[in-house]
Design goal:
This is Purine nucleoside phosphorylase. Keywords: Glycosyltransferase, Transferase. This protein is of the alpha/beta class and 271 residues long. The protein has a single domain (3-270), classed as Rossmann fold (3-Layer(aba) Sandwich). Helix content is 31%, strand content 25%. It has 6 helices and 9 strands, in the order αββββαββαβαβαβα. The chain has a 5-stranded mixed beta barrel. α1 (3-15) packs across α2 (89-102) and α2 packs across α5. The protein starts with a helix and ends with a helix.
């Protein structure tokens, strides 16, 4: 990754009308419907954007969508990248750096995750307060990182406290049950074993997924305030573990999605 590549990607998007977005949004598995509320849409498919990776997961779309949401200019990643697709961690986080170059001032992230905390249930929404990086790498571990920002990035408060507070207030006002917890990010794509779920619980994880953490690390590198929510799509009880059903996960994500959209739209209103 070079600055020239990032600037080429951003220039391509600006030429197509991606002008000074204020907010970037990354959509997770089964969480794509917020784009239906975006007005005056401009769409750029990943395979047309210079140096962009391609989404290879069948239920991840592959396009950037620019437009107006709640009277704010937004750019939405409909389809993210994962290390389990064979990408390296620089590829996975490349779009975050491009959105930042375009001008975003805040970043919203959503994902679908498994509930490790046995007090949580499928269909719950969890506001991420902290994370554990178990993906075996860092998006800041490359030779010329100093060209893009500090090499050693403080992660004592990776998720913006002000936006977290506002989401909690919105959830209370809207009657949306909101859990809070720690998200563990693993490599995947295989799901966890019983022993791995027990390990995650011992480590202090409340939910587990295969994304988000690299994006959050880069957001912090860019000093870009970030907030993230997980839609919990399955319950990871090692003593009563059932085989995973991807169709059910997608159905639960779709059913819970309107609440996540409500939280994000109301948060945008307050910014």
């Amino acid at each position: 990754m070079t600055r020239k590549q990032l600037e080429e990607s951003a220039a391509y998007l600006r030429d197509r009308g991606f002008e000074e977005p204020e907010i970037g949004i990354v959509l997770g598995t089964g969480l794509g419907k917020i784009v239906e509320d975006i007005q005056d849409q401009v769409v750029a498919h990943y395979n047309h954007i210079p140096f962009f990776p391609l989404a290879t997961v069948e239920f991840h779309s592959g396009k950037l969508i620019y437009g107006t949401l709640q009277d704010k200019k937004v750019v939405v990643m409909q389809g993210r990248f994962h290390m389990y697709e064979g990408y390296d961690v620089l590829d996975v986080t490349y779009p975050i750096r491009v959105m930042h170059l375009l001008g975003i001032k805040k970043l919203f992230i959503s994902n679908a995750a498994g509930a490790v905390n046995l007090d949580f249930r499928k269909g719950d929404i969890m506001l991420i307060e902290d994370h554990i990086n178990l993906q075996g790498g860092s998006p800041l571990a490359f030779k010329n990182v100093a060209e893009f920002g500090d090499r050693f990035v403080d992660m004592s408060e990776p998720y913006d406290p002000e936006m977290r507070k506002r989401i909690e207030e919105i959830a209370g006002k809207e009657g949306i049950s909101l859990k809070k917890g720690v998200y563990a990010s693993v490599m995947g794509p295989q799901l966890e074993t019983r022993a791995e779920y027990r390990m995650l619980k011992i480590l202090g994880a409340d939910a587990v997924g295969m994304s988000t953490v690299p994006e959050v690390i880069v957001a912090n590198h860019l000093r870009l305030p970030v907030v993230a929510v997980s839609v919990l799509t399955d319950e990871c009880d090692p003593d009563n573990l059932e085989p995973v059903d991807i169709e059910e996960i997608l159905a639960i994500a779709g059913k819970t999605e309107p609440k996540m959209i409500k939280l994000f739209k109301e948060l945008i209103k307050t910014l």
